[in-house]
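Task 17 of the worksheet. Students: predict the tertiary structure of the chain below and write it out as structure tokens. Keep your answer in the requested format; marks are given for formatting as well as content.
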Amino acid sequence: MQAVQVGEGVRIALSSLRANKLRTFLTLLGNIVGVMSVIAVVSLLDGIDLYAREKVLEEGSGVFSIQRINPLQFVTDVDAFLKSFHNPRLTLDDVSWLRDHVPSAEAVGARLAASAEVGYKDEKLDGIEVMGRTWEYPVIEDLSLEGGRNLARLDVQRSRSSCILGHDVARKLFGEDIDPLGKMIRLAGRRFRVIGVAAPRGAVLGNSRDRFVLIPITTYGKIFGAHESLEIRIKARDVNLVQRAIDEATMALRIRHRLRPSQDDDFAVITSEILLNLWKKIEGYIRYVLLAAVSISLLVGGIVLMNVMLVAVTDRTREIGVRKALGATRHAILWQFMVEAVTLSVIGGLLGTLIGFSIAMLVSVLTPIPSSIQIPAVILGLGVTFVLGVVFGTVPAYKAGSLDPVEALRHE
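Model answer:
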């Protein structure tokens, strides 16, 4: 019996949609806008979340870094962040020390970065990232070559003017027809020989990761100065040995820096887990704030639905009286209007879900912001609209079911 009533309610709701187009548009508009906003925001946040996690994991499995200052503390502990500026800078001597005192490490390297102008003949490129590296970077970083060779130990030890070009830099300086290998380029007023060209690495939020020149870190120091603190990168011999490697590196640096047991570390150890946990907290706050903001439109949509349904009850008072005179129970009338409200709300939710996904995909196409269509987001959109239909359809349905049949038949 209930299945018949549901079907009848849906049929009447669809008939009402066709008969009152303006009212239908106003009813659906509130739900469409609200659900569209929620779905678009959730899809974009899910996309950014997946993207951020992938990029963190791309840093390498079993890799952690040691830095003079932990930039993440600016978010979690400002006092500790400011205090860390008094930490001693990390040097190549620290790197050599760790190579000898971290037995669980497969490789220990260091890196620095700056920007400079790069040129070849009449071609000039501004704002190119100059990456100073030790010879271990192929083991530690995700950087494969399209041609040539990586930096060798002697390149670093002898501060040679050797370089590896990012894919975009190589193509813009030499084009498609000229082989860059062996050619001499200008970098920060100094001549460098190209020994390798990196394979394409893609972009991060629209910023190319292929606009760089990689040089020995010792050569980097001679060009840009040796006053910067290094970022030391360590790769454990096995993923299961990461924590042991962290403990060994921490103890080794404390011994080298002659820290007493009561003193805090004068350096920071950063792992991918720390980055992911921090991102999870930040993303959670952003998600709650944005969803709270767009949920207001859902509330407005529910209010619009209730008001339009109240108008519908008033307009159909005589119809309700006729149905009651023919034997329809109060429960049947209440059920009919409740099903109508839910049907209208769900249709608006379906349209809002489709439009929301379309907007998220369009944003991803036109901007660097990624999106992700998740099944839970679809369930969320439809579930919210169903609840809205039930909650805001209750008052009109109760009013319709409570009408006196005699008074309803007298209604003009």
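Marker's comment: The chain has a mean pLDDT of 81. Residues 272-315 form the longest helix (44 residues).
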